[in-house]
Amino acid sequence: MSSSVKNFTVGYNPLNKSNTFSSGDYLMGQVTFELTNECEVQSLFVKLKGKAQVSWTENYGKTIVTYQSKEKYFSIKQFVIQESMGKLMSFNLAQCCKNVLSPGCHVYPFTFQIPVQDLPSSFKGSCGKILYTVEANLNRSMRMDSKAKAEFTLIQKTNHDPVMMSPQQNMIDKKMKVFSTGSVAMDVSIAKTGFCQGEGIRVMASIQNKSSRDIKPKYCLYRKYSYFANKKRKVETKDILKEEGEAIPHSAGQTVTRIITVPSTVTTSILNCNIIKVEYRLRVYLDVKYASDPEVKFHIVILPALEGSDNQQSSDFLTSEFDQFPNPYMSGGMSFLQNPAAPEPSAPPPSYETYGMYPSFTEITFPVAILPAFQAYPAVPPHYPAAAATPFGFNPNPNPNPPVWGFESQQPIAAPQPSDPPPPYGAYAMYPPLPDFENKS
Questions:
Q1: pLDDT digits over 323-372, tens only?
Q2: Nearest Cα to Cα of residue 106 among 146, 164, 52
Q3: How far is Cα 258 from Cα 358, in angstroms, rounded to an integer?
Q4: Looking at the domain that runs over 166-303, which CATH code has it been given?
Q5: pTM for the full model?
Q6: For the chain, domain boundaries
Q7: To the nearest 10°, the Cα dihedral for 116, 120, 123, 126?
Q8: Number of Cβ atoms within 10 Å of the Cβ of 177
Q9: Cα(111)–Cα(29) distance, rounded to whole angstroms?
Q10: Which of 27, 57, 249, 364 has the most CB atoms around it within 10 Å of its CB?
């Protein structure tokens, strides 16, 4: 009997271009499946999990011993369709409330926050792995559960430990024997301990060759994987890159500088997991023929590559887009976004007619009165006669010929003195005359 659930999948939305997450980030995704017919679902839940595990075997004669260990970081469960919620109400409703889904495509979104803790980066090796997954489970009565899983990559947040910026120095002085005579000395230093993926390691070496043979400085960056279980350790090493410098003649000294570029594809260092460790070493040694090579080693911490600034990327994008579609009315492409050059302080200001944006002063005639230009209005206020002389110090207009504004300009009237009698009712001709009323008893 074929299942009614088809294409049951779980996925998540990328957070950035590198499709990586860190502790504290939000992971959003969706569960998708199709139903060919109506289906009763008991529950649908999603789990966010993080764990590490190691396993390897060792032979002791005819005995094979397996070493295993696990480390759990978190497990968060989120119900999309709650289990048996309706059945708790069936006693009151006299019917069983069930989660019944109709045929068709169903999409259920979800959101998780990755726990804010010191989580190691994702890793996969021959004897162990550190996995971060999101899993979905659809449970139906009398049917096998439908399951789906998706892995996501977690990168440990950048380590701001001051140790990452501390310089390192090491030196060695060795006497030659058997096939060579004399001695060689080497003093090597690097600027810091932590380097990002793709970053260059600047190696400075002061070499004194007091032997009877020519020597050649060589450089090797190698990784070291360590797995721990049942108080045992399994170690794997592999060279990442090798480089060599110019030969230094015998009885001579020289200071050489070399840039060793960390490959951008290497796994970042993992130092915060109890059962898996990923470490790196930089080995600087002198190749001496027919003799053991003197060497020095440095502990190197590989950090995640720094992503470019969004603002800078946005600026570069806008610049390139505007250059592809220049303004036909403006020369210079993006020059219209730039500020114009400021005039020299000693230069006189430009004349009024320089830009041709305004009419010449000679073309403008200013009338004696500006306001009559607005007498296109249908009605103009009438000309009111001047007020009669007042007995309390009316100040006449000092300008005998003022411009005609269509209404008489009124000057402020001086306040009456307290000793002056009040003016008569009709002094200003502002009110109608009072009628003569007969005295009534």
A1: 333 443 333 333 333 344 444 444 555 555 544 445 544 444 444 444 44
A2: 146
A3: 67
A4: 2.60.40.640
A5: 0.65
A6: 5-154, 166-303
A7: -140
A8: 10
A9: 6
A10: 27
